[in-house]
């Protein structure tokens, strides 16, 4: 599986481009702030045609470029419980006043938002087949009400054999290398996050490659052994 990742210009949000192979259709995961030029280069280099945009949750640092990327032709997939965030992810009710003020300071009040034309609401345990890839949706609230983890029984090309991984989890802001997503923003819940880690994340095989919303890739086996938020689950 061809997998390309690169960080957005703000908040270090990871944008992922996944395809069966070069020259094929692809899915774009979490197109954040200022990713458009780099995304165009990735698509050109690998001769890829976007088929859909997948959103792990509705925070602005993960969805900011979804509308220009979709371009009126592609569908944006987001969990039902975070669908409302696409109405105005820049609002303080979505981000909290501190982060909203930070965005305003960096980009100015002129920043505007327009929803993508086609939005597909996804639900827990749903299976998606898009661009030749099969993905399982696992609802994992806590960071937001509609946070999800996307699971695949494939791994990116070029992963060394010694990594001993045989599947991939795209975890958004549910799980990072050594940490988890914050739960103090509007719609967040520590209790829900703990339940998601216990019910959704921890039972997955150690051989899962974790592609998080921020920071480096890791493995679930490594996180179970070292991540303090997975201890005692």
UniProtKB/TrEMBL annotation:
Residues 12-214 form the Metallo-beta-lactamase domain. InterPro entries: MBL_Glyoxalase_II (IPR051453), Metallo-B-lactamas (IPR001279), RibonucZ/Hydroxyglut_hydro (IPR036866). SUPFAM superfamilies: Metallo-hydrolase/oxidoreductase. Its cofactor is Zn(2+). The lineage of its organism: Bacteria, Bacillati, Actinomycetota, Actinomycetes, Micrococcales. It comes from Janibacter indicus. This is Hydrolase. One of its GO terms (molecular function) is hydrolase activity. CDD domains: metallo-hydrolase-like_MBL-fold. Residues 204-233 are annotated as: Disordered. Keywords: Hydrolase, Metal-binding, Zinc.
